[in-house]
Amino acid sequence: MEQPPTAGEAGARVLVVDDDPTVAEIVTGYLDRAGYVVDRAGDGPDALARAAAHRPDLVVLDLMLPGMDGLEVCRRMRGQGPVPVIMLTARGDEDDRILGLEVGADDYVTKPFSPRELVLRVGSVLRRARPPADAPAGGSGSVPGAGSGVLRAAGLTVDPGARRAVKDGAELALTVREFDLLTFFLAHPGRAFTREELMREVWGWDFGDLSTVTVHVRRLRGKVEDDPARPRLVRTVWGVGYRFDPTTAEGE
């Protein structure tokens, strides 16, 4: 179960981008009462300007914006540096949700949604992105089952405490969930996990759209595999899910 925001997350700055003033007002109100510092924008250019003036810790971003859509806003924001993004969409089409994840969104919520659920998701993503400075090693900001020590395998080095991942000496630009997924895989080499298990262990959800896991695995492969079309590290286990297999990769 997700927990309410702690003091470490509650002081975070959240940028809410939605052209519907009613939705923006409701979301802003709930986040404000949860203790977040909230900024609002009604379109893409305004969102980019506000993000440049005061870099947010997280962005709640509507997909359907006038002029510059949320996908382009997400691309441009992430081009300026890593920032967690939760995408809002009124569309029920799975392709649209997957596209949002493909451009770097860490999570999405489909309208109509529960404002309380959105606040919980904001807290969940922030806990991964920036655990409280006074949290003990392996505390609330750590990936379940990963501990706090540095993990190494197949040319990959992951430091959960520093939120830093390196492949063959080059730092990887990973989203919050991609980092969590890679850390979890390195902490459990050789074991096959279903998508349901990964969603529960990495996302902390007992329910949700399993395509979220599929998309994040695909994105992760694109960053850690030498040939993403022929993955050797993150293997598909047909009829089950995925397995991190560094020994086989190193031996091939």
Indicate the radius of gyration in whole angstroms.
18 Å
Neighbour order of strands in the largest sheet: 2-1-3-4-5
CATH homologous group name of the largest domain: Response regulator
Task: Estimate percent helicity.
Answer: 40-55%
Straight-line distance between termini: 41 Å
Mean pLDDT: 82
Helix tally equals 10
What is the CATH class designation of the largest domain?
Alpha Beta
Named at the architecture level, the CATH assignment of the largest domain is: 3-Layer(aba) Sandwich
What are the segments in which pLDDT stays under 50 over at least 5 consecutive residues? 132-141
C-alpha geometry: globular
Keywords: DNA-binding, Phosphoprotein, Transcription, Transcription regulation, Two-component regulatory system
GO molecular function: phosphorelay response regulator activity; transcription cis-regulatory region binding
DNA-binding region: 148-246
Modified residues (4-aspartylphosphate): 62
